[in-house]
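Last lecture ended with a question: if I hand you only a sequence, what can you say about the shape of the protein? Today we answer it with a concrete record. The protein is Adenosylcobinamide kinase. Below, first the input exactly as provided, then the predicted structure, then a couple of comments.
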Amino acid sequence: MLELVTGGSGSGKSAYAESRICEWNGQDPKPLFYIATMYPYGEETEKKIERHRMLRKGKGFETLEWYTGLKLHLEEGSLQGSDVLLECMSNLVANEMYMESGAGCQADQAILEGIRELNQQCSNLVIVTNEVFSESVPDSPEMKEYKRILGRINCEIAAMADQVTEVIYGIAQQKKETDTMVNRTEKPGVDSNKSGEFVMCQKENRAHIIIGGAFQGKAQYATKIYPGLELTDGFNCPLDEIENCVAINKFHSFTRRWLLEGRTKEALLTTLEKNENLQLLISDEIGYGLVPVDDFEREYREFHGRVMTELAEQADCVERVVCGIPQRIK
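The predicted structure:
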């Protein structure tokens, strides 16, 4: 059994992940390991490490401090048949990218090879990762590359996982379960009735909205359910193209450019309402994280949020993609 657990900072994902692996281990006792990936750089990280040690105290974990080279550590099959908790993927990615002993530009390949080997050896495996993809302030090139690699790895692990769980303020939300997962790549905009059959929404034909953090696989999902549909790039298309486009990707970039031009929310919403061709709108979630210091960034974050709120209210279907897995929220 492989479960991927994601969530924001301080969300309770660590406690949930520990409870899951301990539950399985209690039902069928076997060697129990904790793979620690946070390197103790200084006082702040040392405090975090100590906190996690206290959480694990008395639960039977043997701690393995593996900061890089996961596959190399596993070559002798030392974890065969065991239960393992790996925490946290965000640290492992940073280590492989930037530590001297890391894989550098081959970080994603090295990590995924290690995870596949680990999953093959383990009886049960829980992997904790981090939700760092939903802020409005533009990233540096280095941070963007880090998020791209972490996002890709999260999606790959989610695809191979039996379960994927997002923890929000201590509340576990199941994104994928082996026995109950519905194949959402067949038909967008469907509802489940009480018999378990699926029927198309009985609503007006309004735009389908797909949201999620950066690098979560939103556009890839969209191309599966709308094969051949041309996506207008909101990052660099002419602003007036919104009047006639059929589908727009990176809508969060489009709203930034719209606001920079001094155009209003009302003008944007009116233009979209008049566009009878619009079928699909894809946007990053950008309303999380610290409130930006820059005046424009604060205005932009609120502007985009209010635009999306009004569009979602009118939308026929709204889906949120986490680690490559879509979940209908409207």
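Comments.
1. Residues 179-203 have pLDDT under 50 and may be disordered.
2. The CA atoms of residues 83 and 179 lie 21 Å apart.
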